[in-house]
Amino acid sequence: MATVNKQTCPTCGQSVNERQVSLFKGLVAALWSVFQYCAAHEVSTFRRKDVKNLFTSENQTTRFGDWIWFDPNLIRRDGLKKGHYELNMARAADFFAGLVAIPTVVWKNPLTGEIKRECPLFVYQIKGLSEFLIDNDEFVSVYRNRKSGLFY
Questions:
Q1: Which terminus of the chain has a lower count of CB atoms within 10 Å, N or C?
Q2: Pseudo-torsion of CA 53, 84, 46, 62, nearest 10°?
Q3: End-to-end C-alpha distance for the chain, whole angstroms
């Protein structure tokens, strides 16, 4: 995996600047499959292991959990259980109909846990997967300085 602008603590090695998590076309396709699954089974809660067969790539399977960072009103963890999710079916239907925009870039602060959501787009505006990958199809991890600009 490639990295850009990553700064780490010289003592412990932890990243000290915000990490970018970007939405990509494959995540939208995975959500569409889950949305269809939930509609067909008349459920809004599911376990990732029950839907991972719907995903078309390892990248979709691995990154599906990132959905919770983009729009907590769309998909969230069902309780504190890892791999258990709840999909807001009405919000998902509105998103896929192009009626609501969702953030497509999230910045996670590793020190405070703060999440910043940016770049809201409608479903038809989301860039293709190739825009987020380097030549050998690896996802690019991008970091930026925290507001203070100070590093440990």
A1: N
A2: -20
A3: 24
In the block, tokens 């029950």 appear at 50
Give the residue ranges of DSSP H helices in the chain.
Answer: 25-41, 48-51, 58-63, 67-70, 89-96
CA atoms within 13 A of residue 34's CA, in its CB half-sphere: 30
What's the predicted TM-score (pTM) here? 0.76
| Residue 151 confidence class, pLDDT cut points 50, 70, 90 | very low
Q: What long-range pairs does 46-55 form, CB within 8 A, spacing at least 24?
A: 46/84, 46/85, 46/87, 47/83, 47/84, 47/85, 48/83, 48/84, 48/85, 49/83, 54/30, 55/30
Residue boundaries of the structural domains of the chain: 18-140
Question: Which letter does DSSP use for residue 149 in this model?
Answer: -
Class of residue 64 by CB neighbours under 10 A (exposed 0-12, middle 13-18, buried 19+)? buried
> 71 vs 150, which has greater pLDDT?
71
Residue at 9: amino acid letter: C
For residue 62, what are its two tokens?
A: 């691995």
Q: What phi, psi does 18 have (nearest 5°)?
A: -65, 140
